[in-house]
Write a structure and sequence with these properties.
The chain is mostly beta strands. The chain is built from two helices and four strands, in the order E-H-E-H-E-E. A four-stranded mixed β-sheet has the order 1-2-4-3. Strand 1, helix 1 and strand 2 form a beta-alpha-beta unit.
């Protein structure tokens, strides 16, 4: 089962999801909630913009941009299955992004 929620006003619960996906959205207060909401063996897939994005396009507000290694550090207690950060084009316009796939132990 999946849910679509308003992330500004949510309690994700505890150990109730097998998968949490977050793309192009940064609300740092959700890091702990995402970690807590995953069951052991559950996976988080997270990708959003890095601070370097300010130099080449939107978003420019640092509140919506990850610092370098911030995403990796936020999930340091998880088993990282895949991680990258930097400037990537992926077939479209270049963007500074951080991407993570990690498993809760």
């Amino acid at each position: 089962m999946w849910k679509q929620q308003d992330l500004e006003n949510i309690d994700l619960g505890q150990e109730c999801y097998d998968l949490v996906i977050n793309f192009n959205y940064l609300q740092r207060s959700l890091f702990h909630q995402i970690q807590r909401s995953l069951r052991p063996g559950g996976v988080v897939i997270f990708e959003t913009y890095l601070l370097g994005q300010q130099a080449i396009g939107h978003p420019k507000n640092p509140a919506y941009l990850l610092g370098y290694n911030e995403l990796l550090n936020a999930f340091r207690d998880f088993r990282v299955l895949w991680y990258r950060e930097g400037k990537f084009s992926d077939g479209g316009d270049a963007a500074y992004r951080a991407s993570l796939c990690a498993e809760k132990q």
